[in-house]
Amino acid sequence: xxxxxxxxxxxxxxxxxxxxxxxxxxxxxxxxxxxxxxxxxxxxxxxxxxxxxxxxxxxxxxxxxxxxxxxxxxxxxxxxxxxxxxxxxxxxxxxxxxxxxxxxxxxxxxxxxxxxxxxxxxxxxxxxxxxxxxxxxxxxxxxxxxxxxxxxxxxxxxxxxxxxxxxxxxxxxxxxxxxxxxxxxxxxxxxxxxxxxxxxxxxxxxxxxxxxxxxxxxxxxxxxxxxxxxxxxxxxxxxxxxxxxxxxxxxxxxxxxxxxxxxxxxxxxxxxxxxxxxxxxxxxxxxxxxxxxxxxxxxxxxxxxxxxxxxxxxxxxxxxxxxxxxxxxxxxxxxxxxxxxxxxxxxxxxxxxxxxxxxxxx
Length: 362
Known about the structure:
The chain is an alpha/beta fold and 362 residues long. The protein has a single domain (9-57, 68-312, 334-361), classed as TIM Barrel. It has 14 helices and twelve strands. The protein has a five-stranded parallel sheet. Strands 7-8-9 form a three-stranded parallel sheet. The protein has a two-stranded antiparallel ribbon with strand order 4-5.
């Protein structure tokens, strides 16, 4: 393989597609050498057959692309019809823990197995789950997405859910490091600020990441500023990502930026960055992959500007396809499923799936 060909395989950007079938513009973007993943939303869903066909076409264009979705359970579940199980909230699993810890861990494993099995049967590779944020009773954007207030319960239930996902051949993503549950603000529309000090955060919200550092396949940092630690949001902070997550906690998996289109996703040191500059800032801080959502709709001009801007930055030497980018690419490829997925009929008649569904229904 030539050096030039190797460079073309370094693909740190994750984008979306416009609808339920690929457009010519979608296809053009997916062959871009720096695009390494696709994220789906509810607008991309019509039926199992349609989703399976959409993902098959994506893989025909680029077999190495990582097809992702935010599919946690509860209110964050993109596919809800045509046989998909309505997964419980993580909060309900935490409530079950208070009554019967063993049953709760079994139910969490079952939820992970069903979640991942159904997605994989439709051609989805990866889900951004589980949420590791603590339930402080303050955050409306987290709320029932959190397992519990106690970081020990969060870590144990998350580990059980991750085990269930792995049984179906899917890796995991803990979010939102070091913790989004303390702040009231919704980072989709404003910049949350958590004024606690590093010692308090490490002793509470960040503890699941320390305990699960060797188990997590991926982590997504929070679009939250912790001013006593760093003036930048965690996803743009070398201190949070390189020094604490990788250095102190020993995490060696993939780090995704959160969505760069979010209000908090592009304010760095008081400046509103372009999508491309925000991606460069995230990658420079220690992220392996930069995620930009919901920009393909309509003409998709913001998405084209994003890709063009990244290309221009690369030509100017602001992003280097060197050893660090190669390490990031290896982490991205490590998130691809292990083993072939079974189809829907085989899945839903399998003993493991049926046992998991019975556990969730009990």
